[in-house]
Design brief:
The structure is a single chain. This protein is α+β, with helices and mostly antiparallel strands. It folds into 2 domains: about 130 residues, Probable inorganic polyphosphate/atp-NAD kinase, domain 1 (Rossmann fold); about 140 residues, Tumour Suppressor Smad4, CATH 2.60.200.30. Helix content is about 20%, strand content about 40%. The protein is built from 6 helices and 18 strands. Helix 3 links the parallel strand 4 and strand 5. The protein is elongated and about 60 Å long.
Length: about 290
């Protein structure tokens, strides 16, 4: 079992578009105060709260909402090394271990020293045009180069560690982490990777007369994606897309920061969560 984790300075953030998230966050803050632990709460978009997280004032962030809330928390907390505990009020909750009705029991476990920290790799994406870097951003799930509003497929040439891998004619290409293997990459037909892996997963989206299989790269590999044509965009963790031009380059490597998540029980929780979600989804399908 990994080393236990016992927080002293938690903060609680609520998904701003979900009123019930604020109700739960307030209840959590009151619950912790009864235990002698001060835990301020507010919106994930609260600028002052975000500044305090970045300064390292807290040693844990409780994200109340859905998987999107945890993605935002990952981007905020990773640079400061602040671990995240997600409480699911959304639909899927692949990144969560705690459901809405369970948090009181899990908070008891947390302060009994029964929690541990799980480290998950993030990606760094760099957009380069004519040799000049136009920006960098980190991804917990995936970096996607895909067609924009035009319905024509995009043409992409991919190199790994400086050596040409292949070219794709497709709706796009996903470069995902192990965390992202259960997100867009899974929907595009990719494999599920254990969360502790530090490999990059390449998954084409609707490839046409191209390699149609996902590729799992060695740990530490770097990926370069060269865009041909002007009908493509770059999106990182589902953020608003950035238009790409002919011969633009997107470099994807492991980020120098790691997302940390607070977990309970043995590491096999991941597979139990996964099968529970998949079985839940299949219940609504016609037999």
């Amino acid at each position: 079992m990994p080393n236990s984790f016992l927080p002293k300075r938690p903060v609680i953030t609520a998904y701003p578009k979900m009123p019930e998230a604020f109700t739960e966050a307030e209840a959590m803050s009151a619950f912790l105060k009864e235990k002698g632990v001060e835990a301020p709460f507010g919106s994930m978009n609260d600028g002052e709260l975000r500044k305090r997280v970045k300064k390292g004032e807290f040693d844990m962030l409780i994200a109340v909402g859905g998987d999107g809330s945890v993605l935002r928390a990952g981007h905020l907390c990773a640079p400061s090394g602040v671990p995240i505990l997600g409480v699911n009020l959304g639909r899927l909750g692949f990144l969560m271990q705690i459901e809405r009705h369970e948090w009181r029991d899990y908070f008891e476990k947390l302060f009994n020293g029964e929690a541990w920290i799980e480290n998950r790799m993030m990606l760094r994406a760099e957009h380069v045009r004519a040799g000049e870097s136009l920006g960098q951003s980190n991804a917990l799930n995936e970096v996607v180069v895909a067609r924009g509003q035009n319905l024509r497929p995009v043409r992409l040439t991919v190199s790994v560690d400086g050596r040409r891998l292949t070219s794709y004619i497709a709706d796009g290409l996903i470069a995902a982490t192990a965390t992202g293997s259960t997100a867009y990459a899974l929907a595009a037909g990719g494999p599920i990777l254990p969360p502790e892996l530090r490999n990059i997963l390449l998954v084409p989206i609707a490839p046409h007369l191209s390699v149609d299989r996902a590729v799992v790269l060695s740990e530490g590999s770097s990926v370069s994606i060269v865009v041909k044509g002007e009908n493509s965009v770059l999106s990182v963790d589902g953020q608003p897309p950035t238009p790409l031009m002919d011969d633009d380059l997107v470099n994807v490597t492991a980020a120098d920061v790691t997302a940390q998540f607070i977990r309970f029980g043995d590491p096999g929780y991941f597979y139990r969560n996964l099968t529970a979600h998949m079985n839940e989804n299949s219940l609504g399908l016609p037999r």
